[in-house]
Design brief:
54 residues; alpha+beta; two-stranded parallel ribbon; 1 helix; elongated
């Protein structure tokens, strides 16, 4: 059986630039996985900017 993971990222707090929150992304991707019978083994998420070092 193929294993899948969910990855969500929110890189900015600016609401105009980032549409979905991490929780909303997780909800969407969990539903997608369920509808497509995907076996999700892990969920990853991060909410840091890549613009600044560290």
């Amino acid at each position: 059986m193929t294993k899948y993971f969910i990855y969500c990222r929110k890189s900015t707090e600016d609401e105009e630039r980032q549409i979905l929150s991490i929780e909303a992304q997780l909800t969407e991707l969990r539903e997608f996985a369920k509808q497509n019978n995907l076996f999700v083994v892990k969920e990853y998420y991060e909410s840091k900017t890549a613009k600044e070092p560290g």
